[in-house]
Design a protein that fits this description.
Length: 268
């Protein structure tokens, strides 16, 4: 298991790469790459705990498929995160440019530099976080010289960590043999990858498995912080949603009938 306390995706990419280079000829059968902190907002757990996904991970699934992210919920990264644009007229360091446009332009150019023999994909999507399990065979499907070229690119690129890290975060699955868009149905993913087969799911996620809120978790989480700043309560999966109140239908009062003339000409 390769674990890192690095906080930027660029640093993580470099550490993952260095581990592979240093251990290329003595790799274990399965390697799990994950961040060093136990609690992080992108961990696939109701309280963002990184331990349960590891405990539930189905090793036969990893062996069969060769690669498995440690997530199933689509937020963030799926079903599509980046549409690389080689023709974009935007610079990554332009403070006035749209952030997404800069990312898509940067990714296209960086992909062509990193993988000169591959066509730049039209779309890229994968579970965010760059935490995954992978077999030795998948790692060895890329030469050590190629891993060294990725390392050198990270060390020499003019891009900031924000952009170089994002490039690597959405490239590792392709380096390790997955298609550019790797976003399985969440229900099938939870069942096959984590053995959680009795969930109520849509294609993008399953009930009571993950609460999306982006950012650094509060200090001393989960002892402190649940229920603040958009973070869920500790027992949020046990709280049943309040039933929608059924309001009385609006019924217009019947109009008061106009007085009608009686037989004698008077009003009735």
């Amino acid at each position: 298991m390769s674990q890192s306390d690095a906080r930027s995706d660029s640093a993580l990419g470099s550490i993952w790469d260095l581990y592979i280079i240093d251990n290329y000829h003595k790799l274990p059968d399965i390697v799990i790459f994950l961040h060093g902190r136990r609690y992080q907002w992108h961990n696939e757990d109701p309280l963002y705990d990184g331990v349960p996904p590891l405990q539930k991970l189905q090793i036969p699934y990893v062996v069969k498929h060769g690669f498995a992210t440690l997530r199933c919920s689509w937020l963030l990264g799926c079903p599509l995160e980046i549409k690389p644009d080689l023709n974009a007229d935007v610079k990554w360091d332009d403070p006035e440019a749209d952030q997404r446009a800069k990312t898509e332009a940067v990714y296209a150019v960086a992909f062509a530099e990193l993988f000169p023999r591959r066509p730049v994909p039209d779309a890229v999507g994968v579970h965010c976080g760059a935490q995954f399990a992978v077999t030795k065979e998948r790692i060895l499907g890329t030469t050590v010289e190629e891993y060294k070229s990725y390392r050198n690119w990270l060390w020499t690129t003019e891009l900031t960590d924000e952009f170089s890290g994002r490039v690597m975060e959405y490239s590792w699955h392709q380096i390790l043999g997955q298609p550019p868009v790797d976003c399985p149905h969440a229900g099938e993913c939870f069942c096959q990858k984590f053995g959680m087969c009795d969930l109520k799911c849509e294609d993008y996620g399953c009930e009571k498995t993950y609460f999306f809120n982006f950012g650094e978790l509060p200090d001393n989480w989960p002892e402190e912080g649940p229920g603040t700043d958009g973070w869920p309560l500790r027992n949020w999966t046990e709280i049943e949603p309040e039933p929608e109140s059924k309001s009385e239908p609006d019924v217009e009062a019947a109009p008061k009938p106009e007085p009608q003339p009686g037989p004698d000409g008077g009003e009735t």
